[in-house]
Amino acid sequence: MSKPISLKTRLSREYAGIALLTALLLGAILAVALPPFFTQLEITYLQDAGRSLDARLRETRLLEQDDTAALQAELQQFAQVNRASVRLTDASGAVIAEYTLDDTGIQVSDEVVTQPLGPGTGAGFVEAQLSGGPDVGSGILTSIFWAWAIAGSLAVAIAARLYSHRTALGLDACRWRRHAAWRQGRPEVQQDRTQASQRRRITHSQEKERSDVRKDG
Predict the structure, then answer these.
(1) Which residues on neighbouring strands pair with residue 108, listed in sequence order?
(2) N or C: which terminus of the chain has fewer CB atoms within 10 Å of its end residue's CB?
(3) What's the pLDDT score for residue 115?
(4) Residue 121: which pLDDT band, with cuts at 50, 70 and 90?
(5) Distance between CA 187 and CA 84 in Å, rounded?
(6) C-alpha closest to that of 171 among 16, 2, 10, 3
(7) Mean pLDDT on 79-92
(8) How many CA atoms lie within 13 A of 51 on its CB side?
(9) SS3 letters across 62-101
């Protein structure tokens, strides 16, 4: 016959299960909500860089000039400042100029953004493809999920030991009070108390009679 499981053990398992379920639910919410958020940040970063490039090329009017060296130098400076690779193509898809960042030692994003630019010489339409921007999500997500794993483990341990222990003590005290009240309501207990009270009264009466006899004598 198997040994019955104690109340403390059952409560420990129940509280640990609730804490574990809560931690898993929180982790699932983080896993669903955070990656799209950081992906949108990376896309917005490249879009802002593309608008900045468009404003710069409109200001310098390099797309209207036949100066490939100057355009290439401008793209190089832009890429190094904004930490993003850039490629200019015309309406037919032919590459006008491009600059690709070398390995900078940081994680880069896989997102690619296309930004229409002003008209180029003989092209009529020019667009910029920006890619390789900073990967702002990977490091943060890794830190967040490590923190979630540690916090979830601590929550399970605390729920299993601290709260279940306190609850078990409270239930034991309540059970002891119910048991005491039950004993007080039992007929044999009440009869014992009645007999004890009668014996005390008889003893008191006898002692009083002896005292009166001694006084009379």
Answers:
(1) 134
(2) N
(3) 85
(4) very low
(5) 90
(6) 10
(7) 86
(8) 5
(9) HHHCCCHHHHHHHHHHHHHHHCCEEEEEECCCCEEEEECC
